[in-house]
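As described in the Methods, two query proteins were run sequentially through the folding procedure within a single session, without resetting any intermediate state between them. The first query and its resulting structure tokens are shown here.
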Amino acid sequence: MTTDAAHIRKKFLKLAKILHPDVFGRTEEEKETATKYFSKMVSPAYQVLNSDRDRGEYLATLRMFAQKQKQKGEAPPLKSEIAQKLYRIPHEITYNQFVEQVSPKQYANLDSILEYTSTLSELNLVYVLTQNSLSFSTGSSAASASPNSQMGGNEQQTAAPKPPAQSPALRNLNMAELFISKKQWTEALKELIGAEKLDPNNAKVYALKGLVQMNQNAAAIAKASFQKALKLDPKEPTAMKYINQVTTAAQTPAKPPEKKGGLFGWGKK
């Protein structure tokens, strides 16, 4: 809850790899279950936390929830021993320590995912209820405000934020970005081909395809991919960054081989 955007992305990519059907589990049932956990839990959470606007709205909702619970004056119903301990000795440092103890176990085993997710939810609940001010760190600044400043001193109702639209190819895109960061172009292209089938109107899919093809020295094909990305989204950043580069490379004629006269070049004038 208090971590920064870079750490959130690093954790998300790690979970994307752990729960990937080609990595997690040996049976089809395990692969299907892992995929459901990723699409229903991990991916939606990342979509909210990775956006400053959605994260801020989520934080505002948590502030209002905490304010209402404090007004009731009731102790929260906590099942996990570690959350009960945090409620007795609430502190941000203690909260972070407890989260670090539990989070590595969350996706270690399919059978225990819900148990550890529940424990983490209780730790987050205690943190919300026991801290006087809440803030989420971002890459550049922290989004923070007191409950009164958020509510204007009145108990105004704020609707819970709607989750942003999620691409059905999100897993493939994130795996592709992971492979691109490691310069594993062939593996990245496989993920992007799969992403194109799932989400054929996603500009980012074609932009990343162009980036991979450019690094595979296929300038003409990369140019076509960037053009398709920009047709779908004229402001797609990756396509805008590299399209001129591949256009120049595609237009540069290959240097013809040097002609040599006679046997083994003898007799050349």
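Immediately afterward, the second query was submitted; its sequence and tokens are:
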Amino acid sequence: MAENHRSLVAWCFYDWANSAFPTVLTTFVFAAYFTKGVAADEVSGTSQWGVAMSLSALAVAVFGPVLGAIADNTGWRKPWLALFTLIAALGATMLWTVEPNTAFIVHALFWIALANFAFEMGMVFYNAMLPNLAPKEKIGRWSGWGWGLGYMGGLTCLGITLVAFVQADIPLFGLDKSKAEELRATGPFVAVWMVVFAFPLFLFTPDSTATGKPVGAAIRDGLTALWQTFYQLREYKDVIRFLLARMFYTDGLNTLFAFGGIYAAGTFGLTFEELIIFGIAMNVTAGLGAVAFAWLDDEVGPKLVILISIAGLSLLGGALLIIENQNLFWVFGLPLGLFVGPAQSASRSMMARMTPETMRTKFFGLYALSGKATAFLGPAFLAWTTLTFDSQRAGMATILIFFGLGFTLLVKVPSAKY
């Protein structure tokens, strides 16, 4: 397959566009605003946020494979990606209406859950485009470059948020800090960011060839094919082993993303300004890690990259549960990012290498299922543990269990170098 650099760069720019969503909203700024400014207290706010993220993840687990199978039967992926990008942007925009009052708890959770669902669903179709764009021997580096650019996008968006809204004496547009408007404005700001920077993909990156099937027939054949895939999973044993391993270690990653900012604010006392600075620094290390490991992915295969990443995340994550000094939090927290990016980009690369050509979106729907089927358990387990022990440290410790399970299962999966 010949490389079309313009279409691949445009594809990578979608990572730049959508990475602002998890970075600014579900990990750092808005998540911390909800627990500290909207919920009754930080412990109950952490639990409520966990329930919302769990329900959102469960919906992705259900609809990801179904819509992926339908997309494979139409040949179209970009229309689905456009739809879910716009829904995510709408949900993010509505976060502006969340005032610092417990009366807005349900309102906030509804819109963030809807936006997160749409964000994750969009990734099903976005990821499935990669094998049609990049030569198989370069999938690892393009996947890594995409993740790296995404982290830089999150970094840039977070930096602008810090300068223009949070730290400014008079925030952009004259926002009223007494009403937390500088924090609420991050929702519509991220929405605009996503829509604007997603545009190059829809302009320059080609879609798969349409099958010409009528919509009704595509839905019927897609659902039938999905059922047959589930029935014939034993024919794809290596893929299923990988997806099972990913189900656990990705659950640990997703839970870390969802509660990292909350943990930093509640246990180590980081302010909103410090949270954003930490988020910016984390995006730098994560972007560097994704780019640095991209070539290693193509040289030695994605499996080894993932195993190294899980080991690094576990060791540094364990240290963050033991230490109490805020300075040490920065010492152990920042290197964590070096392993976050490679774990994600190499997982996408490994799935792309293992997927049958005619079933890519469907299998990336199963890929989304593997990342979400137990994702409701991660936040729920964390929330239950936090409440039971009345400790954020105890809750965050549950993440290491998922990393350990994922590592153990992945060891038994054959490598997928080419």
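The CA atoms of residues 264 and 270 lie 6 Å apart. We note this only descriptively and draw no conclusion about the first query from it.
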